[in-house]
Design goal:
alpha+beta, Butyryl-Coa Dehydrogenase, subunit A, domain 1, Butyryl-CoA Dehydrogenase, subunit A, domain 2, Butyryl-CoA Dehydrogenase, subunit A, domain 3, four-stranded mixed sheet, four-stranded antiparallel sheet, 12 helices, 8 strands, about 45% helix, globular, binds flavin-adenine dinucleotide
């Protein structure tokens, strides 16, 4: 059997490849191991200038979100063209953006649930001109998001917000927060939640950076004390915010697995080079583990295409709920193996003695975050057990 794209898809790909050759800056072509975690290293900006310019160029040429119309940074691409696009970028390790909340979560949510004024905020979110953060998690509400307690009391024409968010990525550089708040403390917990658009420089907001284990100050705690937010900043209906949690990423949901699989494939290639470099390529245990990683990545790619076929035909793709769990957990083991092979030199970040200037230790640390962010592995397993396999709640 020979699996290949047709001439139309290949023409689309050729146009993309020509665009990349002409416009992609060298910094975008360095095959990062992990998406969306910013640049490594002390004091490095989380979203450097080159990444902001690159995102704007993609938008201006209709390559930021190809499925969208040109005024939203796209070219009305079909689902198959979108898959080709994601695949081509992923295989080259190119990121569209170093900050995903604006283009991947806020813009689709505003376009689906916002009023006409709020929809006008979408182009700047996709182009990266406005940096957004997402205020969901709180000290006592992470996996159980519906338990959030940050309150917004409606007083005539404005809300007064009090409470605390945590793990808020990009809050240190964001202009706006897409913030989930409790507007009816007496309603059942999923029903009393609303979404407010909050300017991060509003008086009463205190953003305190938190450092990741990989050294980046990528997220923050955000405290709200009597923060006044105009009523027109409410997205959708009052107390109807839960519906909005489901609204993101609709335009590329069928292709999101591509990046995770490409990252694994890239990691397997790195493992082989590493094994050769450290003289471990003859070790039967190492060989078996690398072969397992390789076959897992290949199976996941096949599973991804299978799910995409259902998605492109308008059906649901239960395979895709497994992909996030499988790619993040396999990634964790892959980087752990890379660390084991290097022995005592593994944690050294230094281009003389540390192999690849600390790529493996940074990726190893970051691999833990991928099994937590966007729904932890345990929660993914619960979802698969109940919604895909039809098992009873434990
Ligand atoms: C890199 C990164 C970026 C993030 N960015 C953002 C952001 O921008 N905005 C934002 O709002 N949040 C963000 N988060 C937070 C993320 O959404 C939460 O960490 C995640 O939802 C888990 O919540 P928690 O940390 O409170 O853990 P908890 O919910 O307290 O869970 C603790 C442990 O218990 C397990 N557990 C919980 N409930 C169950 C259950 N029912 N069954 C089995 N096991 C369970 C979990 O799997 C976990 O291992 C980010 C997290 C990371 C790692």
């Amino acid at each position: 059997m020979h699996l290949a794209w047709g001439p139309e898809e290949e023409a689309f790909r050729a146009e993309l490849v020509a665009f990349i050759a002409e416009y992609a800056p060298p910094e975008a072509l360095v095959q990062r191991d992990f998406a969306g975690m910013g640049e490594p290293g002390e004091g490095t900006e989380i979203v450097p200038e080159w990444a902001r310019r690159w995102q704007a160029i993609l938008f201006d040429h209709g390559w930021m979100i190809p499925a969208y119309p040109p005024e939203l940074g796209g070219r009305n691409a079909t689902p198959i063209q979108t898959l080709v696009f994601l695949e081509e970028l992923a295989s080259r390790g190119i990121l569209r953006s170093l900050h995903f909340p604006g283009y991947a979560i806020v813009a689709p949510s505003l376009l689906e649930f916002g009023n006409e004024e709020q929809k006008k905020l979408a182009p700047a979110a996709i182009r990266g001109d406005t940096i957004w953060c997402i205020g969901m998690s709180e000290p006592n509400a992470g996996s159980d998001l519906a338990g959030l307690q940050t309150r917004a009391d409606l007083r005539d024409d404005h809300f007064v917000v009090n409470g605390q968010k945590v793990w808020t990525s990009y809050a240190t550089i964001a202009q706006k927060c897409f913030c989930y708040v409790r507007t009816d403390p007496d309603a059942p917990k999923h029903r009393g939640i609303s979404v407010l658009l909050i300017d991060v420089d509003t008086p009463g907001i205190d953003v305190r950076p938190l450092r990741h284990i990989n050294g980046m100050a990528g997220f923050a705690e955000v405290f709200f004390t009597d923060v006044v937010v105009p009523r027109e900043n409410l997205v959708g209906a009052l107390n109807d915010g839960w519906r909005i949690t489901q609204g993101s990423l609709a335009h590329e949901r069928g292709g999101l697995w591509v990046e995770g699989v490409a990252r694994l494939e890239h990691g397997v290639e790195g493992l082989i080079t590493l094994a050769r470099h450290f003289g471990r390529d003859g070790d039967p245990v190492v060989r078996r583990e690398i072969a397992q990683m390789y076959s897992r990545a290949a199976s996941l790619r096949a599973l991804g295409y299978k799910g995409f076929t259902s998605f492109a035909q308008g059906s649901s793709a239960p395979e895709h709920s497994y992909m996030k769990l499988a790619t993040s957990e396999t990634g964790k083991r892959l980087y752990e193996l890379g660390m084991e092979m290097q022995g005592a030199y593994g944690p050294v970040v230094d281009d003389e003695r540390g192999y690849e200037d600390g790529r493996w230790i940074r990726s190893f640390f970051t691999s833990f975050a991928n099994t937590i962010a966007g729904g932890s592995s345990e929660i993914q397993r619960n979802i698969i057990a109940q919604r895909v396999l039809g098992l009873p709640r434990s």
